[in-house]
Write a structure and sequence with these properties.
The chain is α/β, with parallel strands linked by helices. It has helices at residues 3-6, 60-92, 106-117, 120-145, 167-170, 172-193, 200-216, 227-236, 239-254, 327-333, 355-374, 386-401, 430-442, 449-459, 461-474, 483-489, 496-508, 546-553, 594-599, 609-617; strands at 280-285, 289-294, 300-302, 306-309, 338-343, 379-384, 406-412, 446-447, 494-495, 518-519, 522-523, 533-538, 560-565, 583-587, 602-605, 623-625, 638-639. Strand 1 and strand 2 form a beta hairpin.
């Protein structure tokens, strides 16, 4: 060792000898401790060096797992980067897609924020309550760290499926993340809903936007804060992320550069093979509808047939998904001759079709064809959702014309008065309509089915967007086959002239309820409609709320029966008795408000179908020999479910 490297500051070598090799004498002064004080502060001991990574401490299997995880993380990142780059390039080609305020919430948000600024006491109270609840949460977490089991400060709402994984409660870290999110989301949503002095519709718009925002920021939607996703990453060595990013890329490609999150395995379902399988014939066709007549399963049927007009926004086979829950098959088994109007999926050639065209070519011509085929002077009808809105207007039109070819009408989740319509009302102001018109012009005069699907999905973001985001991308799983979600994704296109008229006149102006709607020169007045009416609503319907449907029921001038089913817009309607699910309420009276009706309504377990069937049978005439659709005066044009329903958007 060199002299420079081997000596201490005092010139003594590390061996205890002097530089000349002589033995060093002990210095007595050095043995006396220094007096206390700043000058005596000892230098801190050197920090131990960080040991270098030694791969030999891992087994071969562990090293392979680490390498595989690293490789998969890199592959996932590269896949995501490529997909996002492609999406950005495609979006750049469509300037409308780059709107800084795609939800048109800025003016409404300005109103709400201005009202909050004018109420500083309320804002300070809300902030104080939030701080207090956070203190409660911190205390709760401290008690839990000390071995106690305090009750949670914040819990998910009933039916919230985002936090079902046990780790959201069992793991203190994830529990704290969850409760912190719930507190903050509740604070933001309550702050908006509690503001005063704002236009109700603008406030409702901000409430909807705030729910979308807080839903999007849920910790369950992020890999780092989702315990289920993290476990899957480690268990699969990162393969779940690779699969997730491949799913992400495939969904972007299917959406043409816009994210179209898969909700089911679309290849599993074939229309006419495992959905929409009720046997029958196409007995009439024009450019708007195919009229289907279904084969009987009883020797005799009621004389008066039933003609169903489903919504043209969706396909009719929501009423014929599976044999066990098929409304069409059930009605046939009840002894009714069933006709269904299957609407066309319009392309640019039908872009100028009007609401009056759908009335004439859809309802008038459909009713006429069903009457000729059955050999009767009138039919009973059903209008489902928007199909019911059109049927209502047509009944008033027929009343003025003296047309008696419809003997009764039933409405499934259909609105006539839109003053208290569901959240779709938020998508119908002029800013939205201008955007829609631009999209329809870009699409050749029709609104794409994907746009309609995105709108409906946004109404139930947690169920129809974020649950699939987590499943498909964070967990890397394929969505399960589900016929209802296959149907939900099978939206039709909307002709521009028809769709903008419907949104402006019904949602925007509520023209039919106000008596201001004119069709083909006829003023539409529902009080002129004297035929028997049966109205079905659903208690939890978010598209056609029960209160809105009830207000419409009171507009008709004839005998009206109102029924409310359990569940929502789809499950409330399609609820086969064999399922023994939900319940329904009946009350023969029709008082001024829904609340008054509910006060005297009788609850009955199970489906409402039998109650309606009894009502319908009383208005369907005597029994006659069953009608074979292939033996009627109208020659069959093909087998059910026909051609129109198979056209994808």
């Amino acid at each position: 060792m060199s002299e420079q490297g081997g000596k201490t500051k005092g010139g003594q070598s590390k061996s205890g000898k002097t530089g000349k090799g002589k033995k060093a004498k002990a210095d007595p002064a050095a043995m006396i401790p220094p007096p206390p004080g700043p000058s005596a502060a000892a230098e801190p001991p050197p920090r131990p060096a960080t040991p270098a990574f030694d791969p030999t401490v891992f087994t071969t299997e562990q090293r392979n797992q680490i390498e595989q995880l690293s490789l998969n993380l890199a592959k996932a990142a590269m896949t995501a980067q490529g997909a996002i780059a492609e999406m950005a390039l495609r979006q750049a080609e469509r300037p409308a897609a780059l709107s800084p305020d795609p939800f048109h919430v800025a003016p409404a948000l300005t109103q709400v924020m201005g009202a909050l600024a004018a109420q500083p006491d309320r804002l300070m109270r809300a902030q104080g309550e939030l701080f207090t609840r956070y203190l409660d949460l911190w205390q709760s977490m401290a008690k839990r760290a000390g071995g106690e089991t305090p009750p949670p400060v914040a819990t998910p709402a009933k039916g919230d499926k985002r936090f079902l994984d046990p780790d959201w409660s069992d793991n203190p870290v994830f529990d704290a993340i969850k409760q912190s999110y719930l507190l903050t989301a509740g604070f933001l949503n309550d702050m908006v809903s509690g503001v005063d002095g704002v236009d109700p519709m603008e406030k409702r718009r901000v409430e909807f936007f705030m729910r979308m925002l807080t839903d999007a920021f849920s910790p369950s939607n992020f890999l780092a804060s989702n315990p289920t996703a993290l476990r899957e990453v480690m268990a699969s060595g990162g393969e779940s992320l690779v699969r997730g990013m491949q799913n992400f890329q495939a969904d972007l490609q299917r959406g043409g550069g816009q994210l179209s999150i898969a909700q089911t395995d679309y290849e599993m379902f074939k229309i006419g093979e495992n959905v929409a399988t009720a046997p029958g014939k196409v007995v009439f066709r024009n450019e708007i509808i195919e009229l289907l007549q279904f084969s009987p399963t009883t020797d005799q049927v009621h004389e008066v047939p039933l003609l169903i007009f489903p919504p043209w926004i969706n396909k009719f086979y929501i009423m014929d998904l599976r044999p066990e829950n098929s409304l069409i098959r059930w009605l046939v088994a009840e002894g009714f001759t069933i006709f269904v109007a299957s609407w066309v999926n319009p392309d640019a050639a039908l872009a100028t079709k009007t609401f009056e065209d759908y009335m004439r070519q859809g309802i008038y011509e459909g009713v006429g064809a069903a009457r000729r085929q059955a050999g009767v002077d009138h039919v009973n009808t059903v209008g489902y959702c928007i199909g019911g809105t059109l049927l209502s207007a047509t009944l008033a039109h027929m009343a003025v014309k003296g047309d008696t070819s419809i003997g009764s009408a039933t409405f499934f989740a259909a609105q006539q008065d839109f003053s208290e319509a569901g959240d779709l009302l938020l998508f119908t102001n002029e800013d939205w309509l201008k955007d829609l018109e631009a999209k329809m012009d870009e699409g050749g005069g029709v609104l794409s089915g994907q746009t309609m699907a995105d709108t409906f999905n946004a109404l139930r973001g947690n169920d129809l967007i974020w649950s699939f985001f987590v499943n498909n991308y964070l967990l890397g799983k394929e969505p399960k086959p589900f016929d209802l979600l296959f149907w939900n994704s099978d939206q039709t296109r909307m002709p521009k002239t028809l769709h903008t008229f419907y949104l402006r006149k019904f949602y925007g102006e509520n023209a039919m309820a106000r008596g201001e709607l004119v069709l083909d020169g006829v003023s539409i007045d529902l009080s002129r409609v004297k035929v028997p009416i049966y109205v079905q609503s659903s208690k939890e319907d978010h598209i056609a709320p029960a209160r809105s449907v009830y207000k419409g029921a009171r507009l008709f001038g004839g005998p009206t029966t109102f029924t409310m089913a359990g569940s929502g817009h789809i499950a409330g309607v399609i609820n086969a008795p064999v399922a023994k699910k939900y319940q329904h309420w009946t009350n023969p009276q029709l008082p001024e408000t829904l609340e008054a009706w509910q006060a005297d309504a009788v609850e009955t377990p199970g489906s409402w179908w039998p109650h309606w069937s009894a009502w319908l049978k009383a208005r369907s005439g005597p029994m006659v020999p069953a009608r074979d659709p292939s033996q009627g005066p109208l020659p069959p044009l093909g087998d059910a479910p026909g051609d129109y329903v198979k056209v994808r958007s």
